[in-house]
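dumping this here before i forget
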Amino acid sequence: VVANGALGTGSCGTTFYWRVRSADAETGEIIHSPWSEVRSLTVATGPGAALTLTNPSNGAIGVAITGIPFTWDKVADATGYEFSMVNAETDAEVVAPTAVSGTTYTYTGTLSYNTSYYWTVKALKDSVVFGQATATFTTGAQEAVPIPPTTPAWVWVVIGIGAVLVIVTLVLIFRTRRV
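structure:
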């Protein structure tokens, strides 16, 4: 018999190994049998504990720096969720663990350009965490501000010379007609 909590908490996916032997006979004699073969058991997640993060997808790049909608699939029997986000490069907490009643959270702050973040959602049943998932994403690079185009000086010189030539031609045309 394994008492509650004897395997620890958060042990889903952990493999435990065990073996048995008899230690005492019914007659009170101390008799030790050989150990049995080693057996194992792996603790699986419960059926409602699987949590799938949907947006932004794991490994997404070019994510906007503000107004980001984070979404995940509903977990059966969950009474709420907890959302958190951390800057993956500095380990600084961007969003402290925040209670969320539905399956979406919109970040309205402003993140840094070209920076990796990871976000975690925990499925809660009352105050007990029974499912959790984490994904990463990278924000887009800062958009370059285009330099307004300028007209080179030589273009203005050519336009000026062309204008002078047109004026001289018109003057010559009108002068020759009078005579």
